[in-house]
Amino acid sequence: MTANATQPAGTMLARVLDDVLATPAHRAAGLRLVRAQDGECEIHYEVNEFTANMHGKLHGGFVCLMHDVADFIALSSLLPAEKHAVTADTQTSILRPANRGDTIIVHARVDRAGRTLAFMRCESFSRSPDGTEKLIATGALTKAIVAA
Fold this sequence. Notes:
The protein has three helices and six strands. The chain has helices spanning 12-22, 24-28, 60-76, and strands at residues 32-37, 40-46, 83-94, 103-113, 117-127, 133-147. A six-stranded antiparallel β-sheet has the order 1-2-4-5-6-3, with helices on one face. A hairpin with a 3-residue loop joins β4 and β5 (117-127). It is globular.
């Protein structure tokens, strides 16, 4: 499932990664972790029968969900195992649709992780079957850092 599955044993990511990847909605979307380290993350998922709306386009709710997941994983690569992060604020802008059959690539990064709050941003790109990539969404997320 992951290209970079080895995580330092003392990180929050090492503690939560298997559960994140096993979440039913994430599995239905075909979520794949490509990279997670040093406050950055790349995930891929598919526009399929579970993530598409009735018009065959990626449902906007899945874009928001996967932005949250990618930002969570990026932050988890920085936090110690005794910490956890919960969403405090999220903002996503959908710029254009993605079609059934496209692969969605999400890049997330932590801009700042303080003692109690962390600020992240991400971008989603669609990759069509012919290999064309387009920016489809941008987002910003704030997470509260709490005890696990």
